[in-house]
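Minutes, project huddle
Topic: does the predicted pose make sense with pyridoxal-5'-phosphate bound?
PN asked that the exact inputs be recorded in the minutes so nobody has to dig through chat later. Recorded below.
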Amino acid sequence: MTEELLRSLPSIERLLARPEVVRLCEQLGRDRVRDLLRDITEEIRREIIEGRLSANGRPDLLIDEIEKRMRERSARISQPSLRRVVNATGVIIHTNLGRAPLARAAAEAIKETASHYSNLEYDLDRGERGRRESHCRELLARLTGARSAVVVNNNAAAVLLVLNTLAEGGEVIVSRGELIEIGGSFRIPDVMEKSGARLREVGTTNRTRIEDYQRAINQDTKLILRVHPSNYRIIGFTERPSAAEIADLARRALLPSFEDLGSGCLIDLSPYGVTDEPVVSESFKAGMSVVSFSGDKMLGGPQAGIIAGERELMDRVRKNPLMRALRVDKMTYAAIEATLRLYERGAAHRDVPVIRAIAATRDRVAERAERFSEDVEKRTEGRVRASLEEGASVIGGGSAPEVKLATVLVALESNELSARSIEEMLRGHAIPVIARTERDRVMIDLRTVAEDEESIILDALGP
Ligand SMILES: *Cc1c(COP(=O)(O)O)cnc(C)c1O
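Predicted holo structure (tokens), as shared on screen:
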């Protein structure tokens, strides 16, 4: 039997002529398909020899088996590596899930800019070469209250560039309580070292006073740095000077002051319960010379780092040779500009997904959760039970770690399926749905799920 099966294994050429394989060749290219067919036939040959594949003694079934494996494999390899997912975790700025989803206007601006020529470095008024850095500059200045602004690849790049421009070869004074590490191994002391500036730590982990900064100033001092502690809080017996105190001290010593805000909100989110994230314009009101923040945290835009500040300092930043290595592309400018325009129009709470998710009330989420849980039971014909439970969504992305936004979770469970199987089913869907598992139930937080994504979750659970 084994002999007969081996003999009836079709040749690669014969397989390549099969209509289904011809279609695959159009998608994947003939060479790629030929390689796959070789691998699969070899695999099947081995299975036959080892007695693991008998094809029910029917050599004519071998070709079906080969085609079946070919279909599975080509489906897998034609999936892009980077894929859209549905974020049902309730973590709004989810670092593992691409941080901020863009506003529709921003996505459209990217599409328009990406597929056409643009005036990226062309001055349309004068008909001559223009400057890339001119885009977004005034818009950012208006929205932050700064004189000028520069956009770079992310906030880590922004901090590196500011330190290098303003303090290379000199000392930067910073509080011990602010020598933080944020996720992804961004550590202030390490970035400082790479910038060529020397760290001058002052104060203690929990208390630093303005006098500590004052005493540390010497002829090598180039900059005073203040860092928003982002993902961590020291509570209890603590003290740190306000931005205004730091800015005053720096001004009197004829030094620039720089605040790394991390998230950097453009609008006050305290009406929604987010009280410990600084608003960018407040730093300038306090007198800071330069601030930096991320484009894809609370701003809700693309990955970018925004540096804003005094005109003369921004000119120096722009002229730094590192700028060329850290600059952003046209699509990033397009997305930032479109996002900022939503803020300018006062439409951020409606049109910027991150802000919309923060602004959604518990009752609004509850309404959706109620309807959705009924849809789940209907769609799965009761196979999956859905119940409602009070819970909390978080901001994530190292921002506002103490803020808990009241939400209503949909808890999924089933007599036939373990929580793990439900979670895997969701994650294995054509558009993967990412949810948390808690006490043997799968929890869906609709706060981070767009309304038109609910049907994707139903499809993933559905028959
Ligand atoms: C997030 C963060 C950064 C790094 O920003 P990226 O945009 O992720 O590079 C730097 N500093 C602080 C305080 C942060 O919170």
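Observations noted during the meeting:
- The chain has a mean pLDDT of 94.
- The chain is about 40% helix and 15% strand.
No decisions taken; revisit at the next huddle.
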